[in-house]
Fold this protein.
Amino acid sequence: MWIKKCWILVAILLLSLPIYGTGLRSLDDFPFSLGVKDSLMIAHSFHGHPSFGPAGGLHGATYTCDVDFLSKQLHPELNWVIDIGKALDILSKVLSRYNLKNLDEVFPDNTMTTTEFMCKQIHDDICRLLEDECKEFKGAVRVKLWESHKAWATYTGITSSDETRSEL
Amino acid sequence: MWIKKCWILVAILLLSLPIYGTGLRSLDDFPFSLGVKDSLMIAHSFHGHPSFGPAGGLHGATYTCDVDFLSKQLHPELNWVIDIGKALDILSKVLSRYNLKNLDEVFPDNTMTTTEFMCKQIHDDICRLLEDECKEFKGAVRVKLWESHKAWATYTGITSSDETRSEL
Amino acid sequence: MWIKKCWILVAILLLSLPIYGTGLRSLDDFPFSLGVKDSLMIAHSFHGHPSFGPAGGLHGATYTCDVDFLSKQLHPELNWVIDIGKALDILSKVLSRYNLKNLDEVFPDNTMTTTEFMCKQIHDDICRLLEDECKEFKGAVRVKLWESHKAWATYTGITSSDETRSEL
Amino acid sequence: MWIKKCWILVAILLLSLPIYGTGLRSLDDFPFSLGVKDSLMIAHSFHGHPSFGPAGGLHGATYTCDVDFLSKQLHPELNWVIDIGKALDILSKVLSRYNLKNLDEVFPDNTMTTTEFMCKQIHDDICRLLEDECKEFKGAVRVKLWESHKAWATYTGITSSDETRSEL
Amino acid sequence: MWIKKCWILVAILLLSLPIYGTGLRSLDDFPFSLGVKDSLMIAHSFHGHPSFGPAGGLHGATYTCDVDFLSKQLHPELNWVIDIGKALDILSKVLSRYNLKNLDEVFPDNTMTTTEFMCKQIHDDICRLLEDECKEFKGAVRVKLWESHKAWATYTGITSSDETRSEL
Amino acid sequence: MWIKKCWILVAILLLSLPIYGTGLRSLDDFPFSLGVKDSLMIAHSFHGHPSFGPAGGLHGATYTCDVDFLSKQLHPELNWVIDIGKALDILSKVLSRYNLKNLDEVFPDNTMTTTEFMCKQIHDDICRLLEDECKEFKGAVRVKLWESHKAWATYTGITSSDETRSEL
């Protein structure tokens, strides 16, 4: 009888694990952040799509780019989320792919290069570069692009979640 | 015996559902946002309540209003969270209810129209207008009101959560 | 037989409680915030540690400090998250511990007083002062320190979580 | 003899007049200002000119545009420099000539549409519109264009100086 | 003959003096400045005057107030334009006359309390307080009031010009 | 007789020349500007001088540095005030002399390294570098240092005024 009950409790625990697990993926688990700012200047159009009105034609934007690196804890000795020099370097490398370019040429197939889309693009580029050049950083990355003094967009994602989970 | 165990596992799963379900309501589920800014100028008092000190009497404020529209994903074709023109239009409509008014007259019964209270008010107004004029937007809305260069308040809420859940 | 099943269901519920409980600790449970800004000017070094390059030597910083007080609901009568005068007073008291000081002397043992570290320090100081002077505030506190026009750090934590849980 | 001396004194005074006159044209004579902000998004290139490096090719910019209207005195009854609604309207009209356009097409002959150049252009457009739609404004206009979070340009000029002089 | 010529030259010089003198009153003569920021919250109306449209009725504003103290040279020992503590104290005293007040009551006779008007008012108040409490400051004062994220006004004036001239 | 009168008129004109000349040195003669931003982090004290109160001891600051380059006209072909890349490079070189340093060591003899003093210092350094590396720039330079979110200082001066005069 007790063995049976144990079996049931083990089943409950196993079923509960993914729930606890999702907890690990919440942004709440990354209470620390470091942020850096840079900017880029691009041309693009919305390919004449009527939903964008006069913005359908060729125009451009300065995107001021704020990137937050979120982490669970600080480096035990250096008390940092990430080396700020490395963070600025990674941001600069990523932005140089788009800076002073025409996004209509960078992204083929009439992609709508909205500020929201560019946030995700820059986010994903940063995450890939972090994996290559800054493996020790585990956490989340938030990208905010200001397109003017009164409009902006953001994208927030957790880096390499599988490794993150086991690491944490 | 196996039937009994199945019954128990079903019970566990049923009990777990709301937990998985709450996951859907987390702000973490809305990684994209678009934000727009506008402002309004109001008079109000705190009805002489002693807790507010000299702010109890009639005075006023410029609220600079930042609204973030958060969503799970981008529009599949247009790559936007929400049409920015629609977002600005909704914000402008909502702020016109309070702009250049005396909030002591807009809100009866000695309501304390703190910046926090106005955040929730503007949030709820925006959500109602979204339901009327922009049904395709599902997600969350964050309202930030700057009352001065050194003080602000925010309110964040998920729009029409029931629909959101089934939609997602 | 039914007694046994009941026992199992009770076990499931007991095991589920912490999961529901963690829900209470999410930042999503604090939709309201009030924020205030102040600044402090400090000297410090990174004790010549090579990882910090030229910042290893004695230099300094102005930290512009944004503090958000997050709460589940507004005060039922006053419609505030926290008395803004109290919030500014607590912030001022905490910053006076570090303002116009050399952090190399304030923190012994070659502590690396990064912006990230100072965020947590100021956060913890604010939480302790809240417990002493503003017991009625339950919620979370986010500290953001701007170290320049292009770099900042944050720390976010939930105050007195045990009490919070039972209170909520 | 005295007649001769008088003649000389008159000559001195006549010669001095333009000097006193130039005093009228100093920005110091316009102690009041009203300012408004708007923004525009443009594409342009520097026509592959090597002096501009990678900015020679097609790219774009958001210009946040601050315009100051400077005047000698306030309207005697209304206590304003200029009707702020009129100021915003004039700015909006002027910016619409360039907003969401490719400046390489707006300005022929390989004009270098630097931020400095656009400041002067917008300044001159505003002055012309003031003469048409707001004749009562006499004074100076300063245009500041932010091209990014870390770069800007300005142009300041006095409107319709001849009339200004006689008016003052 | 030479005596007559001398007499004429003296006349020329005397006539030229005021021209050299006006040079002393130019803002260009004050190359140094120190600036401080504070804010105030007021209610006011434009007394239903039709020129102000919907702003004619009772509403309010937060004015963020930037004050620049301009001087010809730095204090010879302390290398400052003005004691920053004194500057902040004077600004705070002046703003307290209007902060959390209804300007319709502070200024009688249906005065139009535009942002421009308030700039001059605060400027004059600061100059009077400087004469009382900080006699050693000679120079100019510029007051900038931000009424929203997209509108502001300024007033610039030279303090106690007679003394300034003889002093310089 | 007419020869005598001519002589007098020539004398008047000669005496008037410096007055016309001073006109050339007014900031009003530089209607164009280009501005760039950077920042530096320094430690310093005010050598325990009682006038500075608690700031007398060792502390530090982040100075956000805005530099405006003012000119009479744009480059005839390139339409710029100054090559923005050169401007940023000069600013960066100048700031590196102070960045991450203890100003008490950089400036001997108990110099009071106020924000005002540092503005003039950076201004003078920029002017010297302009003469070495960017001889074609003639005009004025304004340096603004933000020491916190609510305090700043500026210094404005005209570069190499003698050359400027003859050039203009």
Observations:
- Residues 2-24 of chain C form the longest helix (23 residues).
- The longest strand of chain C covers residues 32-44.
- Chain C touches chain B at residues 5, 8-9, 12-13, 16, 19-20, 23, 26-28, 31-38, 68, 74, 77-81, 83-85 (CB under 8 Å).
